[in-house]
Amino acid sequence: MEHKINPVSAPSPSKRAGEGRPSFSIYDASAGSGKTYALVKEYLKIILVAPKNDAYRNILAITFTNKAVHEMKSRIVGSLSEFAKDEPSDKAQDLMKDLLNGKRKENNPEEWSEEPIGLSIIQIKTKSQQIIKHIIHNYAAFDISTIDKFTHKVIRAFAHDLNLPMTFEVTLDTENLLIEAVDAIIAQAGEDETLTKLLIDFTMEKTDDDKSWDISREILETGRLVLNENNRNEITHFQDKSITEFVEIKAKLTQACKDLEKQTIVFAEEALTLIDKNGIDVKSFSRGTFPNHINSIQQGKFNLKNKTFHEFDDVAINKTAKDRVIIENLIPEFLQILTKVYSAFEKINFYKAFLKNITPLSLLNTVSNELAKIQEEQNVLSISEFNAIIHREIQNQPAPFIYERLGERYRHFFIDEFQDTSEMQWQNLIPLIDNALSGQDDFGVKGTLMIVGDPKQSIYRWRGGKAEQFIELSKDQNPFNNPDKRLEHLDKNYRSYSQIIEFNNDFFKLLSNEFEHLDYKDLYENHSHQKTNDKTGGYVNISFIPKVEKTECNSEDSGDEGTIDKTDLYVLATLNTIQKTLKQGFQYKDIVILTRKRSQGIAIANYLTEQGIPLLSSETLMIQNATEVRLIIHLLKYLKNSSDLESKANFLQYLAQNSQDKLLIHDFIAQGMALFQETEFENWLMSFEVSLSFQNIRKKSLYEAVETIIAKFLFPVLSKGKGDLVVNQMDKACFIESNKFGYMTGGNYSHLSIDKAKAMRKEPTHAEKVLWMEFKSKSLEDYKFRQQHLIDDFIVDFVCLSKKLIVEVDDEYHFTEEQIQIDKNRTNTLNILGYKVIRFTNEQVVKSISDVLNKIKEELILQETFLNSSSPVIAPSPSGRVGEGNAYVQYFLDIVLERDIRNQAGISDFLNFWDKNAEKFSIPSPEGTNAVRIMTIHKSKGLEFPVVIFPFAEEDYNRKPKDKLWLNAEEQDFGLPKVLIDNSSAVEGFGEEAVEIYNQKKQEELLDNVNVLYVALTRAEEQLYVISNMNLSSKGEIPKNNMCSFFINYLDNKGEFDEDKLEYEFGNATKLSSAKPHIDTSKTIPLVSEILNPKNIKIAQREALMWGTHQQEAIEYGNVIHEILSFVKTKNDIDLAITKSIENGLITFGQKETVLNTIQEIVNHSELEICFAEGNEVLNEQTIIQKQGKSIKPDRMVLTKNKEVLLLDYKTGTHNVKYQQQLENYQTAIELMGYKVAKKVLIYIGKEIDVVNL
């Protein structure tokens, strides 16, 4: 075929990957500048030119979100796939052209900035085919991951050295761990005397300051210090301090404040004595200012915020004063005294500022220890501890040793979004990278590092990501021994139309004047300008909401400064903007609304929903809002407390709307609410074909209880005419035999089966032990396996839950014909539940572990591919009808399972957890839905949208910062080198060093806020709308430190601003782009109840559905009746027994009437009526151990009050004399126990009931 690509003269193909590249490349990539393209291109260069097809094994690419990982992997694999085709796509051909032709330096065309790869088109095609094939077969080695995943991999490799359990789990839920730790600390009040006194004193301090007595929030903030990387260095100074030591320090500080206050009074009296001693008239001082100042100090009323005296001229003297010369001679002495006074007050204020924080700080160790204890108990490790562990324990290990443990040796590193990399994460990576950059591989290729980032998009300082780190690297800093370093600026914006690019260029260059810090100023003055692309046009709109006039009326109704009215104006302006863009031809899905705060997004979402605007936001996708999830929660609340009428009413409303059509909704709810006895309520529900036992559900584990609710109410397709699905597996004898091997528990996660699983974990076979050690080592670190784990009614050897893969290891027992059939049936059932099962023999595992692991890896990758390609289309579930909300239910089930396994949570514990955390969980946003998106600016990072609307653009930067400040202290004063104080203007009174720290913090906060604004204003492709508020004073002054001033200054600089004009336009408000076709990569999977509702798949203990032949039908029917009768003690138990039988899968709902009639016929039989009467003790299936050690188990024994026994035994099939002999043996055993057998009855159960009295 004929290609469009015309490669220029290129270097020799003998050039290896990395030879033409600098060892250390830094790409400064502004918004929309194609950083992912640059990363992929450099990655492809390495693997295409490398002599081997598995060069990707030696590359580690790191980014920060799973979505970014997916994008990078998809781009690389997609590019290779296109290169391998005869006719690559246009995009692939453009990329191939860049690879073939390279790139010349703009300022020196004779030199390369990017050298060509030196391959022909055919060579690229052939090589791509080979690499793709290799990646498919070794996908786990295709190492592109999040930095947290890589860190986890390192920790897992060193788990033994770190004394971590091999089976530890990673938790992202650090906040809840902290809350548990704080609750545990407060619960210790009354036990530990020192802790109790501290907590009480802290509570009293808060109430004295007119604050809430609840101290948990402050202690929680202390806990966050422990886990926040930004404070790691400082808190090391406190980790060896006990509560007692802190109490002593607090007492010293308090006393020091009192002593200093006394000193100031002494100093003031010294100054007053000088005035009196020298006969100075106080009226000689202008307005008496100076003596009044001294008196205020002497009386303890002085504040540093008042006027102070530092210079000679500060002491004003009346021109007519007769003692002027005397005063002037004493001024130096007065100033010297006051210097000591001011210094003392600075110390007092400094100590008091620390005293405000010392009590929660004194609990630092207590919180840390409690947190460690909880993690150990739950066998979890908080992800926030990863970096610290590596930094403390692993970082200083020799790089070759670390590589050996990892089982990989990386030669090339790619780090995406470097501005978000924390300092500790970077320090942890340096040794590995330095090792690679310092040497060459077997082919003489040097290692490389490519860093891509943008310090202007650094918005995660609160978790350790600092723009300064990138800025320093972009200048002279180089942490590596290899000096070969190059900085590249990606300065062309491929995302936006020209009008938006030009607006941002002008806006942020002007904004650079807000900075005093030279690096920050340079960042926006010289590094924010971007070149335009070939997309000309676009539109920018800056508008201001009308001025809110504060009146007495709206002041009372709306709270602070008319906030509610202002919010109404913002949401109305947002709606008008949406309607304006729709008229231009944009669709809802083209529009995104960005807000700084979540509360602002909620306000907009509520209003737009009322106006009928389709929306997608984290709120609309929260699983707590799904009808199905609300039903489950209401039912769990009812199960916890049957007196919870609100939950009961909500449950009934759901049933009224979805599961019955006999009554009006109101009548149905009213009837159900009138039934207070639970048994009556259950019987009433039965009349609407809703069969359940609340008591039985309460006995289940949390996960089972939720599964039962889902099976009963959310997927009724099984009970609407189809009946329950019953899997015919084995008869009773086979069931009992298989239980020896942990195959079926018969109790669905009962305590018996849990204990059985635990016991089997403690006594693995040799082969199981070998495979388990491989799972826990480096072999399959990307996949988490569980050992001897319960799956429905089975205990499986090993399972990877995330990939639904089960691995069984079989000994010779499994080779018998009978067991082969059992295994086959078991596998079929597990397949129905959605699991893939693979089996190995003991011999295979022990002798060929490598082959076994390779096979498992292949299956895992296949499962991953299958699960990814089978992900269901997710849609909001407003109606609560079957199938529409299954994505919400599945996610909810995942949460329940995690709480059940990790915390052994019951219903009550889970509901407490849910009350605190429900709003955190939402399903992923579906692609292609025609709805307006609402998201915070932070969540929009890395995304782009045709139309961006940015309301509430008036953030006040003067608000009190959340962060506190660490200041240096004189350690000799109280034994601490650092102190923690509130970040406020008071810091400016604590000395020059404190002022410097305070000002640096203010500049950092300004940079972070401007960076957030940069992210917001660079998301737009075609149109950008900013909605702000002028906030002008009554004199028309522009507010300081408010975001709105940035827009006003920009307009003023353009000569456009007029305070009476509310809207400013740049460009033409015309839609220029054509609609992008949405490529739907998801697949809609029809509802498969057998998989989504595994609890509806019951293992038939009697093959009730085998009632086919007349003889077999009678036998099996009899067995089922026999089983149900074991639940019946008196006539009153019949209904409950039937319900239990349906729940256990023994019979289907459709068989209920037939079975009920048979049971009633037996119970009400004239010969048997006395055996089911009330007032007697009944023993069903009671084992009796005889003297000789043999045991018997009569079906039913009725013990009357006069020690007589009525003996019943149920049989199936034809009459047989051996049954009579069996009953006589029972009689002999019972009479040896001192009872008299008054009646012996054989009951033959078949098509008809035959009662035989003996």
UniProtKB/TrEMBL annotation:
<keyword id="KW-0067">ATP-binding</keyword>
<feature type="domain" description="UvrD-like helicase ATP-binding">
    <location>
        <begin position="8"/>
        <end position="497"/>
    </location>
</feature>
<keyword id="KW-0227">DNA damage</keyword>
<keyword id="KW-0378">Hydrolase</keyword>
<dbReference type="GO" id="GO:0043138">
    <property type="term" value="F:3'-5' DNA helicase activity"/>
</dbReference>
<keyword id="KW-0547">Nucleotide-binding</keyword>
<keyword id="KW-0347">Helicase</keyword>
<dbReference type="InterPro" id="IPR047216">
    <property type="entry name" value="Endonuclease_DUF559_bact"/>
</dbReference>
<dbReference type="GO" id="GO:0005524">
    <property type="term" value="F:ATP binding"/>
</dbReference>
<dbReference type="InterPro" id="IPR011604">
    <property type="entry name" value="PDDEXK-like_dom_sf"/>
</dbReference>
<dbReference type="GO" id="GO:0005829">
    <property type="term" value="C:cytosol"/>
</dbReference>
<keyword id="KW-0269">Exonuclease</keyword>
<dbReference type="InterPro" id="IPR011335">
    <property type="entry name" value="Restrct_endonuc-II-like"/>
</dbReference>
<dbReference type="InterPro" id="IPR000212">
    <property type="entry name" value="DNA_helicase_UvrD/REP"/>
</dbReference>
<dbReference type="InterPro" id="IPR014016">
    <property type="entry name" value="UvrD-like_ATP-bd"/>
</dbReference>
<protein>
    <recommendedName>
        <fullName>DNA 3'-5' helicase</fullName>
        <ecNumber>5.6.2.4</ecNumber>
    </recommendedName>
</protein>
<dbReference type="Pfam" id="PF00580">
    <property type="entry name" value="UvrD-helicase"/>
</dbReference>
<keyword id="KW-0234">DNA repair</keyword>
<dbReference type="InterPro" id="IPR014017">
    <property type="entry name" value="DNA_helicase_UvrD-like_C"/>
</dbReference>
<feature type="binding site">
    <location>
        <begin position="29"/>
        <end position="36"/>
    </location>
    <ligand>
        <name>ATP</name>
    </ligand>
</feature>
<dbReference type="InterPro" id="IPR007569">
    <property type="entry name" value="DUF559"/>
</dbReference>
<feature type="region of interest" description="Disordered">
    <location>
        <begin position="1"/>
        <end position="21"/>
    </location>
</feature>
<dbReference type="GO" id="GO:0004527">
    <property type="term" value="F:exonuclease activity"/>
</dbReference>
<dbReference type="GO" id="GO:0003677">
    <property type="term" value="F:DNA binding"/>
</dbReference>
<keyword id="KW-0413">Isomerase</keyword>
<keyword id="KW-0540">Nuclease</keyword>
<dbReference type="Pfam" id="PF04480">
    <property type="entry name" value="DUF559"/>
</dbReference>
<keyword id="KW-0238">DNA-binding</keyword>
<feature type="domain" description="UvrD-like helicase C-terminal">
    <location>
        <begin position="531"/>
        <end position="942"/>
    </location>
</feature>
<dbReference type="InterPro" id="IPR027417">
    <property type="entry name" value="P-loop_NTPase"/>
</dbReference>
<dbReference type="GO" id="GO:0000725">
    <property type="term" value="P:recombinational repair"/>
</dbReference>
